[in-house]
Amino acid sequence: MSIHSAEVAWHRHDAKFTDNRYSRLHKWTFDGGMVVPGSSSPHVVRVPLSDPSAVDPEEAYVASLSSCHMLWFLSLAARDGYVVDSYVDAAEGMMADGWIGVVTLKPMVAFSGEKAPTDAELERLHHEAHGECFLARSVKSEIRVEGSWRF
């Protein structure tokens, strides 16, 4: 068993608060010391009460699923003897009816070396990465992997 933690901190400062016109800007501090600015999405709370330059929870959700999938994919590719030079994913989450029901991963992977995976092997690696990802197994959103897998 392992525990993963993050501190989320927000302060009102001089905003009235009860008029619902307070800043949604806050910070996330992770156990390694990294501090990331957080905010509500400007799709949910208008600017300037939200900060579009900060990470919103919906973006973080999509990024977490993409990151987890990528890390498993890299591990599995290394296990199978493939050399991955880069992995870029332009992941998207679709929010409808108040929840992110579909997250679409669009990984593009560059390989080098003598051994290159076939399309079927790439599909197997992505399928296996999805099955191993702790976060994918923890959510009810549908997670799709599509697009070009090599460049």
Structural overview:
- With 151 residues, the chain is α+β, with helices and mostly antiparallel strands.
- It folds into two domains: 55 residues, no CATH class; 89 residues, 2-Layer Sandwich (GMP Synthetase, Chain A, domain 3).
- The protein has a three-stranded antiparallel beta sheet with strand order 1-2-3, with no helix packed on it.
- β2 and β3 form a beta hairpin.
- α1 crosses α2.
- The chain is elongated.
- The model has no long low-confidence stretch (mean pLDDT 95).
Helix content: 10-25%
Give the total of beta strands.
Answer: 8
**What do we call the CATH topology of the largest domain?**
GMP Synthetase, Chain A, domain 3
N-to-C terminal Cα separation, in Å? 38 Å
**How many domains would you count in the coordinates?**
2
Question: What count of helical segments does DSSP give?
Answer: 2
Structural class of the secondary structure composition? alpha+beta
Identify the overall geometry.
Answer: elongated
List the strand order in the largest sheet. Answer: 1-2-3
CATH fourth-tier homologous superfamily of the largest domain? K homology (KH) domain
Beta-strand residue percentage: 25-35%
Residue ranges: pLDDT <50 for 5 or more in a row?
none
Rg (CA only):
19 Å
String of helices and strands? EEEHEEEEHE
Taking the sheet with the most strands, its summary is: 3 strands, antiparallel
CATH class of the largest domain: Alpha Beta
Average pLDDT metric: 95
> Per CATH, which architecture of the largest domain?
2-Layer Sandwich
